[in-house]
Amino acid sequence: MKRKPLTILEREIIEDGLNAKKSITEIAAEIKSTNNMINIEIRKGGGIRVYNAIQGQKLAEESAERVKKQREEFLSKGRKKVGEYHAKINELEKELKKYKDKYDKKDK
User: Fold this and answer.
1) For position 107, what pLDDT does the model report?
2) How many domains does the chain have?
3) By residue range, what is the domain housing residue 74?
């Protein structure tokens, strides 16, 4: 199951836990997360000695915004392609109808 992103409060708990020399396991238990999630967050935030909750939150928000923008660009390109395919299908259907009408007239 995918977990929601950490909140600023959870990041502050991580920062406070690191400053209090708590173990990763203790911090993870406190915010009901996994050791791996805490380790990743600390690594992204610069490491155990320099981790800062506010900086971690800022980085997470920037990353989420980048992902959102990339997703929108991807979907936009996909919608454009779908539109192009629909236009081509309509063009081919008209051409097919024209040939069908032509051959129907010959059969009569």
Assistant:
1) 65
2) 1
3) 8-80
